[in-house]
């Protein structure tokens, strides 16, 4: 034999740490009188339970089965350690050890994984106690029950890796020792023992995903069901503080409010007296009577125990049955109904609960393996008979001390008959993690032996055969291992040594006989370091019976309906709000919208302001009454003008027609006919052709008409001036002058319109904003300056014509049209002067109607004022339509 003494400053410190742990473990606990009989039956801290099987390579294990509860020392008296309860057993955790045994059995029967070597195992219990965890971890590294650090001999137990523990405290205790020896430790605790990955030992692995994915899954679950008003419950310890600090900010970031964040007293607080009962009762009444429908619980075992006692105290204080009304519990992956949670706990309160669980798949053969267990022949399993006695409430022999009314165990009792909170025949998430851990070690060894380059690289450092294989050689292979287990799941570790996998979402359905079933209803799969892929089958969920299978609500207040937006309530969390109606012209089309918004330009809000309706097109149509009336008037006046033109043509040789230039009369009538007809270009849906033509046609045709009136006025004036003796005006009287006036006046307007059409022609346009419920389909004038230039020039011609007619109105009536022209131009100018403010103050079809009306009114004014007196003579007083009569009247 030999002692392997470490050298170097770092190794000296490690060696001193081992000695301190060794000396501490030798200190026996002080015993209370009432328990001294039991404690003297064994060596100090030498609790007998273990499970061992020989093999070339040994996989160590630290299980959580028995509890070893002691009271805290307050140093008011001489320090000692008193047992409060000798042992309590979590029967359900026994399956964890069985999954390790089953995995080793499968590997032995599979010659393709680790040929030419056999696996064994050695499992101790942690007793959920730091001192016992340190002691049993060191025992796994020793060849005898005595703990001698660094002791070696020729024939030794070759422990290649160790699996454990269940919670983060036990895992940390183990890592303190195993990290010294660089032995791989594969834990199955849901929470990492070290929060920062940088501080986590390089020898530490977990077959559990990082807890941050669980927190992200909780947020996604709450958002999926639109639960924004929830209670947060955790134990008042370091784990509960971490839970609060991690989850609450994530909830706030995603719009979920905590109605309360309650920390429950730790189970160890005050158990030796009743000083804690008053605040405990207050918390019980507050939590259990809370009207919050959704409670998120950090489901550590100690938190579950506190909830159990809270239910009990609430029922006693209120003299009511334990709370079983509608609350949906959202639980973390540590949750499981076990025998410890069933004491004084009405599981009906957890009916319909949703919990996260380590992802599992059905492992073939495990149920058959469980049915082969024989407690009469445990084959090195020191846990089996203890489990059997507790599970079936029986004893194996009289040597164990029969109690009254206690039956004798036969060993043929059926595990399938046990309720789920004691034992399950399918692998739990913890057992599945241990199963994967064993296979990870086996596949690592397989990869080491199959990689020749790695074998040559390590040849100088030690062989790969079982006697020479060193645990530290596994690390480089273990971190990169990737394989599919027998259930088809991919098993691999990420850069932090944690399982690259996700969580299942479990729905817990409870029954009045204190039994339950768990239904997998969803899962979360990590996508990257921040996001998870979330899925849930709502139809598979059974809610608490008080909800009658209706989705529970979790809101601070009633939701805002479409047509309203949320308005913050001062002094309350952002999930509490009032509902304000959307302002005029805005809508909200979903529940609980933060802001109302405008519709698209071609839509407008409905009456309830909860949806957008397509706008109607708005233009002066022939189908509507106004458009029909104006079009009818245009056609009537056009026919009337054509009739007048026909009458004048038929009576073209009469004096009344010849007077004041017959050709100008015909031209004026034709221009007025076109004026009436051009108004039809303004009615109907605008098109590129109609938009280009209508203002240009209106400007040119009206310029012709006004120019004719001006030319007739000039003709009258020159005619009377030419009758004076010696007048030089005679040479100007004739068709050449009138044609020149007409051509000159029209040319200017034609030039303006041509320049307009060439530079910025009118085009169809849609005004989306002027009217709330309609889209104005109009002709955009292109150049406003050109439009008003056309109107301005037309107004200039009209004013010149009016002025000259007004000056010539006193000439002899028989030859003079000046009075009629004066009155007609007065009507014309009045109409168009009123047009400008009316045109500018209207929109859409009303604006078009104003222009059409002005065209018809001004044209009708010219037609009526100039031609009605002549029509009266032609049609009703033909006796006056003679040259003699006109000469006599002129005298």
Structure explained in plain terms:
The chain is 41% helix and 16% strand. With 891 residues, it is α/β, with parallel strands linked by helices. It has four domains: 2-207 and 363-397 and 417-488, 3-Layer(aba) Sandwich (Rossmann fold); 211-359 and 502-547, Response regulator (Rossmann fold, 3-Layer(aba) Sandwich), CATH 3.40.50.2300; 564-614, no CATH class; 625-724 and 731-817, Rhodopsin 7-helix transmembrane proteins (Rhopdopsin 7-helix transmembrane proteins, Up-down Bundle), CATH 1.20.1070.10. The strands form ten sheets. An eight-stranded mixed β-sheet has the order 12-11-13-14-15-20-21-22, sandwiched between helices. Helix 3 packs parallel to helix 13 (429-450) and helix 8 (277-288) packs across helix 9. The longest helix is centred in the last third of the chain and has 35 residues, at 688-722. Residues 1-15, 24-46, 81-88, 268-274 and 319-324 have low confidence and may be disordered.
Explain the layout of strands and helices.
Layout: E1 2-3, H1 9-25, H2 36-39, E2 50-53, E3 57-63, E4 66-70, E5 83-89, H3 94-109, E6 119-125, H4 130-140, E7 151-152, E8 159-163, H5 168-181, E9 185-187, E10 204-206, H6 211-224, E11 229-235, H7 238-253, E12 257-264, H8 277-288, E13 294-297, H9 301-318, E14 328-331, H10 339-342, E15 353-358, H11 366-371, H12 384-392, E16 394-395, E17 407-408, H13 429-450, H14 452-458, H15 475-478, E18 482-484, E19 490-492, E20 503-510, E21 516-526, E22 532-536, E23 564-568, E24 577-581, E25 586-587, E26 597-598, E27 603-605, E28 612-614, E29 616-618, H16 625-650, H17 655-658, H18 662-678, H19 688-722, H20 735-759, E30 763-767, E31 774-780, H21 784-807, H22 818-840, H23 845-876, H24 883-890
Parallel strand pairs: 3-6, 3-8, 8-9, 9-10, 11-12, 11-13, 13-14, 14-15, 16-17, 29-31
Antiparallel strand pairs: 1-7, 2-6, 4-5, 15-20, 18-19, 20-21, 21-22, 23-24, 25-26, 27-28, 30-31
């Amino acid at each position: 034999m030999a002692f392997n003494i470490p050298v170097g400053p770092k190794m000296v410190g490690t060696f001193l740490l081992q000695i301190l742990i060794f000396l501490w473990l030798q200190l026996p606990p002080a015993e209370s009188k009432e328990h001294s009989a039991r404690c003297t039956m064994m060596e100090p801290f030498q609790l007998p339970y273990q499970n061992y099987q020989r093999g070339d390579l040994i996989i160590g294990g630290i299980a959580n089965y028995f509890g070893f509860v002691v009271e805290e020392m307050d140093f008011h008296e001489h320090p000692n350690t008193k047992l409060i309860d000798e042992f309590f057993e979590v029967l359900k955790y026994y399956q964890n050890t069985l999954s390790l045994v089953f995995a080793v059995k499968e590997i032995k029967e599979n010659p393709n994984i680790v040929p030419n070597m056999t696996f064994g195992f050695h499992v101790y219990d942690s007793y959920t106690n730091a001192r016992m965890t340190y002691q049993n971890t060191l025992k796994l590294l020793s060849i005898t029950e005595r703990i001698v650090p660094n002791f070696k001999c020729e024939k030794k137990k070759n422990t290649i890796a160790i699996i454990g523990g269940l919670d983060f405290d036990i895992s940390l205790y183990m890592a303190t020792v195993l990290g010294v020896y660089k032995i791989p430790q594969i834990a199955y605790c849901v929470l990492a023992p070290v929060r920062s990955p940088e501080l986590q030992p390089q020898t530490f692995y977990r077959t559990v995903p990082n807890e941050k994915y669980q927190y992200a899954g909780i947020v996604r679950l709450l958002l999926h069901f639109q639960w924004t008003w929830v209670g947060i419950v955790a134990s008042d310890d370091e784990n509960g503080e971490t839970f609060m600090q991690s989850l609450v900010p994530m909830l706030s970031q995603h719009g979920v409010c905590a109605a309360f964040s309650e920390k429950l007293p730790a189970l160890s607080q005050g158990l030796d007296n009743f000083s804690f009962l008053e605040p405990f009762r207050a918390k019980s009444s507050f939590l259990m009577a809370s009207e919050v429908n959704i409670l998120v619980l950090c489901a550590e075992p100690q938190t579950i125990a506190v909830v159990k006692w809270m239910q009990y105290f609430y029922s006693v204080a209120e003299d009511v049955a334990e709370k079983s009304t509608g609350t949906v519990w959202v639980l973390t992956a540590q949750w499981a109904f076990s025998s410890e949670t069933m004491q004084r706990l009405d599981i009906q309160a957890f009916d319909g609960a949703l919990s996260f669980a380590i992802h599992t798949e059905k492992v073939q053969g495990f149920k058959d393996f469980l049915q082969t267990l024989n407690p009469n022949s445990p084959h090195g399993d020191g846990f089996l008979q203890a489990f059997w006695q507790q599970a079936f409430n029986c004893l194996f022999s009289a040597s164990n001390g029969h109690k009254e009314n206690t039956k004798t165990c036969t060993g043929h009792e059926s595990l399938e008959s046990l309720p789920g909170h004691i034992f399950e025949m399918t692998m739990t998430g913890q057992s599945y993690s241990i199963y994967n851990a064993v296979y990870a070690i086996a596949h690592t060894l397989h990869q080491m032996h199959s990689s020749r380059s790695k074998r040559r690289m390590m040849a100088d450092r030690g062989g790969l055969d079982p006697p020479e294989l060193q645990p530290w050689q596994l690390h480089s292979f273990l971190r990169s291992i990737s394989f599919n287990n027998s259930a088809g799941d991919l098993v691999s570790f990420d850069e932090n040594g944690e399982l690259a996998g996700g969580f299942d979402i479990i729905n817990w359905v409870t029954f009045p006989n204190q039994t339950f079933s768990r239904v997998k209803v969803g899962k979360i799969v990590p996508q990257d370091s921040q996001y998870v892929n979330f899925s849930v089958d709502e139809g598979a969920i059974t809610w608490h019976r008080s909800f009658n299978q209706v989705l529970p609500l979790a809101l601070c207040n009633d939701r805002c309906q479409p047509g309203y937006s949320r308005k913050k309530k001062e002094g309350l969390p952002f999930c509490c709000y009032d509902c304000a109606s959307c302002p005029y012209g805005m809508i909200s089309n979903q529940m609980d919208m933060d802001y109302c918004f405008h519709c698209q330009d071609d839509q407008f809000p409905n009456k309830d302001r909860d949806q957008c309706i397509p706008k109607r097109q708005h233009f002066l149509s022939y189908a509507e009454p106004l458009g029909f009336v104006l079009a009818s008037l245009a056609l009537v006046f056009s026919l009337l003008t054509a009739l007048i033109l026909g009458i004048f043509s038929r009576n073209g040789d009469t004096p009344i027609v010849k007077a004041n230039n017959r050709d100008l009369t015909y031209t004026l009538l034709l221009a007025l006919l076109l004026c009436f007809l051009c108004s039809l270009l303004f009615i109907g849906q605008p098109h590129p052709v109609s938009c280009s033509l209508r203002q240009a046609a209106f400007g040119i045709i009206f310029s012709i008409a006004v120019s004719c009136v001006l030319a007739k006025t000039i003709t009258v004036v020159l005619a009377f001036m030419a009758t004076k003796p010696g007048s030089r005006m005679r040479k100007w009287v004739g068709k050449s002058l009138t044609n020149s006036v007409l051509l000159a006046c029209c040319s200017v307007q034609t030039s303006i319109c041509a320049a307009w059409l060439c530079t910025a022609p009118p085009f169809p346009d849609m005004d989306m904003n002027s009217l709330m419920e309609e889209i104005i389909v109009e002709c955009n004038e292109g150049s406003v300056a050109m439009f008003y230039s056309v109107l301005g020039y037309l107004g200039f011609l009209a004013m010149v014509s009016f002025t000259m007619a007004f000056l010539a109105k006193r000439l002899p009536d028989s030859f003079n049209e000046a009075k009629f022209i004066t009155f007609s131009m007065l009507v014309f100018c009045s109409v168009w002067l009123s047009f400008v403010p009316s045109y500018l103050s209207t929109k859409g079809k009303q604006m078009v109607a104003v222009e059409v009306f002005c065209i018809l009114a001004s044209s009708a004014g010219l037609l009526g004022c100039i031609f009605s007196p002549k029509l009266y003579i032609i049609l009703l007083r033909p006796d006056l339509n003679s040259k003699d009569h006109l000469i006599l009247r002129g005298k």
